[in-house]
Amino acid sequence: MPTNQPPQRYCYYLTRTMRNAQGGYRPTLAFEGHAALLQTDFDYGTNFRDAADCVHYMNRKLGLEPAEAMRIVATSLEAARGCGLH
User: Using one digit for the tens of pLDDT, what is the confidence trace for 17-39?
Assistant: First the structure.
């Protein structure tokens, strides 16, 4: 059934602690206004700068500049704080 709600925005998000057992960086997806980060199974390698470049590239493919992606992350983290998750 169709809804009148706009599509949910999301972005890729990466910190230095988001790594798999082999040391590869694994980004998460942050959903605007939702208290959840969804971990991906992507491995962007062990170099943080290269992994961050991949995240920026993917966000640009979504039409997001870095500042807009960080606003989406901020709304997700703020929602988590309101739920006692952060």
Answer: 999 999 999 999 999 998 888 99
